[in-house]
Design brief:
alpha+beta; 6-stranded mixed β-sheet; 27% strand; 7 helices
Length: 315
């Protein structure tokens, strides 16, 4: 089975106005027309899985916002989506997973219950309806924007999942790019660049991208444009780079995932779709794509939508 996947960081979760009384869902207003427009062009191949980062307050007042977003996606794409609200320790804007409940069965969701270990939070285990032995996992994450060291600690914590026998994806806003000249680069000395320490590091007297966390999971790049990525002990691989050997157009697969004009010095590829060793070779040829929206700013989100397809075989 081809498993269609999508990833988007929806700026502020499309929350336009919050509630002051902390109780009335009706006092919160989300402009989900932005979400609808972001996925209108995906209607010809509706995703089975949609990972959405920055789902602000989707879970703080029941399921009102979560269900509203699921209904918008369902009516836009013609699938029956169910939403699973994730969590972040730093605030009420954790990731959300929407899955197609007509074709997929949820067997596990790592919520915030005290019995759920930290490395299982925001982790879903699913299988194809009526097809036992098609188990797979997808974990959603949103890494700290302010510290490369904090991102590296998170990567180290998650690194053990790469050698799991169960096929697993690790997807989300990593707030970091990986090493390699084939990826979008930033001019760290461009006019207006601020907070270089967020996504950069100072090495040998020059600012450059902080890539240690992503490299921890997928391996460091060696050599120039004709170089290679070394095997990582963590056992993760990037669907974006698998495009180079599966037929996807590299330009579409390796585009920056932040829209132009958001970050001074140029946007980076910071939203990643990783998969572990058990799913190596599972990226469907030609499927990895970062969608560039029309340049009619303001954009519906500061990030771009990414889609890809994984081949899911019966175990």
């Amino acid at each position: 089975m081809d498993l269609y996947c999508a990833l988007i960081n929806l700026e502020n979760g499309a929350l336009v106005r919050g509630a002051d009384d902390g109780d009335a869902c009706q006092a919160r207003w989300y402009d989900f027309s932005r979400l609808r427009r972001l996925f209108t062009t995906a209607a010809d191949q509706p995703p089975h899985l949609i990972a959405l980062n920055e789902a602000k307050e989707y879970h703080t007042h029941g399921r009102h916002a979560l269900n509203h977003a699921a209904e918008v996606l369902s009516t836009t794409l013609g699938r029956r989506y169910v939403g699973l609200a994730g969590s972040l320790s730093i605030g009420p804007f954790g990731p959300v997973l929407f899955y197609d409940a007509t074709e997929l069965v949820l067997d596990y969701w790592g919520d915030t219950h005290e019995s759920v270990p930290l490395d299982k939070r925001n982790l879903a285990r699913l299988h194809v309806y009526g097809q036992r032995g098609t188990d797979f996992e997808i974990m959603l994450d949103h890494w700290p924007f302010w510290s490369g060291s904090a991102r590296l600690e998170r990567a180290r914590y998650l690194s053990g999942a790469g050698t799991s026998a169960t096929p697993r994806m690790l997807v989300g806003d990593n707030n970091e790019t990986a090493s390699g000249p084939h990826l979008p680069q930033r001019d760290w000395y461009a006019e207006g660049v601020r907070h270089r320490h967020h996504k950069g590091k100072f090495v040998d007297g020059r600012w450059q991208a902080h890539t240690d966390a992503l490299d921890c999971l997928i391996g460091a790049w060696r050599g120039g444009c004709d170089g290679y990525r070394e095997e990582s002990e963590a056992g993760f691989y990037a669907a974006e780079e698998a495009a180079g050997v599966t037929g996807s157009h590299a330009e579409a697969a390796l585009r920056a995932t932040v829209n132009i004009g958001i970050d001074k010095g140029g946007p980076l590829l910071i939203d990643w779709a990783l998969h572990n060793t058990a799913w190596r070779g599972g990226v469907v040829p030609g499927s990895v794509r970062v969608e560039i929206p029309p340049d009619d700013r303001p954009f519906d989100s500061d990030h771009r939508r990414k889609t890809w397809t994984m081949q899911l075989d019966r175990g």
